[in-house]
Design goal:
The structure holds 2 protein chains of 2 kinds.
Chain A lengths: L3 E2 L3 E4 L5 E7 L8 E6 L6 E6 L5 E3 L7 E6 L2 E6 L8 E9 L3 E4 L3 E5 L1
Chain B lengths: L2 E4 L3 E3 L5 E8 L8 E6 L6 E6 L6 E3 L7 E6 L4 E6 L8 E7 L9 E5 L2
Parallel strand pairs in B: 2-10
Antiparallel strand pairs in B: 1-3, 3-8, 4-5, 4-9, 5-6, 7-8, 9-10
Classes of the chains: A mainly beta, B mainly beta.
């Protein structure tokens, strides 16, 4: 079964950029993933689907400040020009055999 | 626009069952699977299962096998998630989501307490 590994926390200063990481387990490095943002007391918001060829499809209304790219088993979410309301939990998710969804533990982003 | 509207908060005693609805609109109901995900207080997202509204086929996460049942009513574009033999650690917000991950319901808080 595929496993997604995310660091539990990250931080960056207001106005700068941050790169969040999601690592696919061995044998699953060709999997696509989705990135979600979950602000405090809110539901998950779909940010983008990041395909294994590096292409991505964003959700409606997601600003250009959010982008994604891949490198081997790593899937990255980059947020530029950080704003205070970017402070949230960020989850990655993939699709396993049988259309099972698998989530990472989430990364809590603190905007300093 | 695409909407997934869930039923309201529920309180149940341990051992009881709960049924949460997810009414969809703004797209063809049978074109996308519906998944259920839950989030316990202060915890991450946990996938529970999916249903294909067209065929009725379903699949559940192993840890919920035997306790969760997904059904659908195509006449009203609604999917239901029933969780039985509730325990205190089933207290969580339950979300439905469309199979392409793009659209989610607002969440339903289920509290299990004696």
């Amino acid at each position: 079964q595929v496993v997604l590994t995310q660091p539990p926390s990250a931080s960056a200063s207001l106005g700068t950029s941050v790169k969040l990481t999601c690592t696919l387990s061995s044998g699953h490095i060709s999997y696509a993933i989705a990135w979600y943002q979950q602000q405090p007391e809110k539901g998950p918001r779909f940010l983008m689907k990041l395909n294994s060829d590096g292409s991505h499809i964003k959700g409606d209304g997601i600003p250009d400040r959010f982008s994604g790219y891949i490198s081997g088993a790593e899937r990255y979410l980059t947020i530029s020009s950080l704003q205070s309301d970017d402070e949230a939990d960020y989850y990655c998710q993939t699709w396993d055999t049988g259309a099972y969804w698998v989530f990472g533990i989430g990364t809590r982003l603190t905007v300093l | 626009q695409v909407q997934l509207m869930q039923s309201g908060a529920e309180v149940r005693k341990p051992g009881a069952s709960v049924k949460v609805s997810c009414k969809t609109s703004g797209y063809t109901f049978t074109d996308y699977s519906i998944h259920w995900v839950r989030q316990a207080p202060g915890q991450g997202l946990e996938w529970m299962g999916w249903i294909n509204p067209h065929s009725g086929a379903k699949n559940y996460a192993q840890r919920f096998h035997g306790r969760v049942t997904l059904t659908r009513d195509t006449s009203i574009s609604t999917v239901y998630m029933e969780l039985s033999r509730l325990r205190s650690d089933d207290t969580a917000v339950y979300y439905c989501a469309r199979g392409d991950s793009k659209s989610w319901g607002q969440g339903t808080l289920v509290t299990v307490s004696s």
